[in-house]
Every structure is written in C-alpha cells, then in structure tokens.
Amino acid sequence: MAEDIVAGVLRQWQQVHPGLDTGPMALIGRLNRCSALLQQAADAPLRRAGLSRPEFDVLGTLRRMDRELTPGRVARETFASGAAVTKRLRQLEARGLISRRADDRDRRVAHLSLTDEGRDLIDRILPEQLAYEATLLDGIGERRREELSEGLGELLVVLEGRLGSLLD
Amino acid sequence: MAEDIVAGVLRQWQQVHPGLDTGPMALIGRLNRCSALLQQAADAPLRRAGLSRPEFDVLGTLRRMDRELTPGRVARETFASGAAVTKRLRQLEARGLISRRADDRDRRVAHLSLTDEGRDLIDRILPEQLAYEATLLDGIGERRREELSEGLGELLVVLEGRLGSLLD
DNA sequence: GACATGCTTTTTACGAGTAAAACACCTGTT
DNA sequence: AACAGGTGTTTTACTCGTAAAAAGCATGTC
C-alpha cells in the first residue's frame, strides 16, 4: 500500500517535535489536500463550458431548488458572501443564463431564475461533471466510498453545529 | 441521527432529475464543505497570531524540513505557485520571520531559513493550533476519526496518481 | 568564447473574493 | 406623517491568487 503525502509530513513533525499529537493534522491535512486536488482536477468539464465552480454552484442551486430565489438566498445556499454573489449574478445575467424579476411588494429584492439557456446548460453539464467525478473516484472501492461519505456527513453535522455556535 | 446539508441537496437533485447518480456529489460535496468549514474555523489561533494559513504553511514547511529550502522547493511543498510564494516570502521576510541566503554557485537561487523569531513563533503556535483543531473534531468518535484519516489517505494516493498523469 | 536552451525567481496585469460602507427600501412606533 | 431601526443588495477599497512574460543566470555545444 503506497503512502500518501501527508504521512511523510507527519513523520517529519514527529522527528522535529517527538510526541506532538498530530492526529488533527492527519485528518484535516488530508481533507484539505483532497479537496484542493479535487477542485483543481474535477472542474475540467465545467471549465470547458466556460463556467467556474462558484458559477456552476449558483446555476445548480437555482436548478435543484426549482423555483425563483433571491440573491440573499443564493448566497446562503452556496455559502458565499452577498458581495461575491452580486458579482457572479452580474456575469451570469450578462451571459444570458439567469434573469431577474423585480418583486412588486418590496422593491429591494430581486427574484432570480434560470433562462432556458441556463437550464439547458446545467442539465447538459451536470451529468458530464458527475461522470467525470466518478472516474476520479473509481480507484477506491465502493465500500470505501460509502464509508467516507457517511463519515464525512457525520463530521459535517458536528462542524455545522460547532461553527454555528462558535461564529455568531 | 441528524442529517447534514448535503443530504438535503442530494434529495433535491433526485426530485429534479430522478435516477441521477449523485454518488460523486455525496462524497466530493461533503469533502469540499468540510474543508471549507474547517478552514474558516480552524484558522482562528493562526489569525490571532497575525498569520494566514498559507503563511503558516510556509513557516511550517521550513520548520518540519529542518533545513534551508529554496523558494521553488517551498512552492512545491506547499502546493502553491511560484508567484504566490514570492509574495508570501516578501511579507514573512519583512516581518523578520525568515531570512534569505544567496547561493554562491548559482546566483538565481536563494536559501530560506527561519529566523529565531520565526522558529519561536511556529513552535508556540503549532501546539495551540493542533489543540484547537482537536476540539473541533472531538464530536466524532476516535474510531471514526481514524477511519476517516485512513480512507482519505487512500483517496489521496489515488488522486495524486490520477492527477499526476492527468495534468502534465 | 558565443549562443541557444532551460531553469529559478520575480514582476506585471488582471480577475475574483472580502469587509465595511453605502444605498434603497420596508415596517412598526409615536 | 415622520422617523428609527432593520433588512436586502450593491458598491468601494483592498488583498491575494494566477498566468504569462520578463529578468537573470547556468550549462552544453558548436
């Protein structure tokens, strides 16, 4: 069984600081590294379509919620700041992928929806993207994949709870 | 058992596109989300010391390698671009945390090392950072943590192999 | 020894994110 | 009706990352 990069890093730390509890690094370091590698590589089909991952997330959110959303709601769903969403919306709108409708009760708020073109784009790209991601992951067994999904889901619940109370 | 955010997203997709294979999203989505939450939250001790995560990575790399490194080597170790490293080195040097020594064979290359101050800083912060990370993770059992570390290590090996051949 | 080639590092120009302020608007109170 | 306070969105000023080009240097070949 080959060793991953983080294992070597942990060994170096043990030599420099014997006895240091590197347990958190073993998990968090690997998590971050996996995430970075996947984001770098797994966005290839998106980029071919001229979309960044954040833009894809906005379109995907509108698609899966299957109704109009306000910019603020999109920001919360995609875990982005309002300002970042404003910029993305401007570009997506300029490309004709989304459209805005003014609220008639409250003139501050806008209601976003996918244009036909936007919907076609996401519906065409999503299966490609998922298929590509599947090939990246098929080096590990299905059992392992499920175990990881489950374990990460558990971690996610803990973190969401922790950070909800930690960051407010 | 509470449900994590990604589970709800997967259900929405199933309603919009029944039968879509969302397996990759279950894993990759959770991975990215965990990574984002951890990075947002787990850097608190670093920020108190006035360090960003990338700066911390540079100092940590110099510390654990325990010898002089060239900027290029630091870039490879921290998975950053050369340009990004140049900027970080300039700031770390201005703060007196690292120093440069010119190579006398090849005048292009510089040899970086931690100053006493830099070494003291990283040695003081690292245990704090690890302890803080440990508290973030202690909501899941130790068995789970090990299982995740191991599974992510396996995934990392696969990705490193895949991307090494995919991206060059 | 001059030059083509390639390597290491830095610079430049630019795109994208953030925090904080600004802006526009609503709502409840007086 | 006026206004205080709150909310939704955008703007502003700034930081940081990147890709591509530039700068500087070494090395092998003719």
From TrEMBL, chains A, B:
The UniProt record lists the keyword Metal-binding: no
SMART domains hit by this protein: HTH_MARR (SM00347)
UniProt keywords, alphabetically: DNA-binding, Transcription, Transcription regulation
Record has Protease as a keyword: no
Residue ranges constituting the HTH marR-type domain according to the UniProt record: 24-157
GO molecular function annotations of the record: DNA binding; DNA-binding transcription factor activity
InterPro entries to which the protein is assigned, alphabetical: HTH_MarR-typ (IPR000835), Tscrpt_reg_MarR-type_CS (IPR023187), WH-like_DNA-bd_sf (IPR036388), WH_DNA-bd_sf (IPR036390)
Gene3D superfamilies attached to this UniProt entry: Winged helix-like DNA-binding domain superfamily/Winged helix DNA-binding domain
Pfam families, per database record: MarR_2
UniProt name for this protein: MarR family transcriptional regulator
Organism per entry: Streptomyces benahoarensis
